[in-house]
Amino acid sequence: MNLSPNTSFPIPVNGRAGLLFWKQDALAGIMVACVALPLSLAVATASGVPAVAGLLAAIVTGLVLPFLSGAYLTVGGPAAGLAPAIFLAVSLLGQGDMQSGYALLLPIIMACGVAQLLISRFKNVSSLNKLIPPMVITGVLASVGILVLIKQIPQLLGYTTQAHGVFALLAELPLQVSKAPIPVLSLGLGTLFCVTAFHFLSQRFKMMFLAQG
Q1: SS3 state of residue 73
Q2: Is the pLDDT of residue 114 over 80?
Q3: Who wins on pLDDT, 72 or 1?
Q4: Looking at the domain assignment, is residue 105 inside a domain?
Q5: Which positions ≥6 away from 171 have C-beta within 8 Å?
Q6: Burial degree of 180 (CB within 10 A; 0-12, 13-18, 19+)
Q7: Which CB contacts under 8 angstroms, 24+ apart, belong to 188-194?
Q8: H helix or E strand, kind and range, residue 153
Q9: Count of structural domains, the chain
Q10: pLDDT band at residue 15, thresholds of 50, 70 and 90?
Q11: Could you give the CA distance from residue 47 to residue 54 in angstroms, rounded to a whole number?
Q12: Which domain holds residue 170?
């Protein structure tokens, strides 16, 4: 489909009339789900909670958020920005026992959700996000990425760890690398190589298509 600068699109509407582009919406939903599924599991693991909690949170958010949002175009899914805070809260509430801390954290999360619903009824509240410098947000997201990466190292090497802190994981890393099973390590590194190669190849082909267009 060729799009010109003067191309106009119909205004989204609710009800049966909004199903005009249901094929495109279904494809977009599948793509978002493919991204949200592994991301929700990784964020939950980095937060120190059961992985299934991240999956359930992503499902509930995807089903409920579109009905509460005031926008026609909405993407709801896992956000990694609070992973370090949730990990710290679970650890402190449980005093080192992550299972107990997770159970104590659930009522707090429910209270935060209710508070967000109440705050959303006030107008112009979203303008307060301008008070946070962009560099702070970038730093938080970068730290979350590092946290998620480190938490995935035991799965890459094929061992189960009892350490919950980042520095504890890094401290036991040299010993675990020396004992890592060769088949598991080969599979993990091979998968990592394929994902990285696919990323660079997709970017290259994308630029080729844009140049030809």
Answers
A1: coil
A2: yes
A3: 72
A4: yes
A5: 163
A6: middle
A7: 188/155, 188/156, 188/157, 188/158, 189/156, 192/156
A8: helix 153-157
A9: 1
A10: low
A11: 9
A12: 21-71+79-123+134-180
Residue 99 within any structural domain of the chain: yes
Question: What global pTM score does this model have?
Answer: 0.58
Q: How many beta carbons lie within 10 A of that of residue 98, not counting itself?
A: 17
How many C-beta atoms lie closer than 10 Å to residue 65's C-beta?
13
- The band of 66, judged by pLDDT with boundaries at 50, 70 and 90, is confident
The CB-side HSE value for 127 (13 A sphere, CA atoms) comes to 3
In-domain check, residue 119? yes
Spatial contact of 76 and 23, defined as CB atoms under 8 Å apart: no
pLDDT of residue 180: 79
Q: How many CB atoms lie within 10 A of CB 31?
A: 10
Terminal-to-terminal C-alpha distance of the chain: 12
Among 40-44, 91-95, 124-128, 177-181, which is the least confidently predicted range?
124-128
Task: Flag whether 67 is in a domain.
Answer: yes
What HEC string does 76-101 produce? Answer: CCCCCCCHHHHHHHHHHHCCCCHHHH
Q: For residue range 133-176, what is the model confidence (pLDDT) as tens digits?
A: 888 888 877 887 787 788 778 878 777 776 766 777 788 888 78
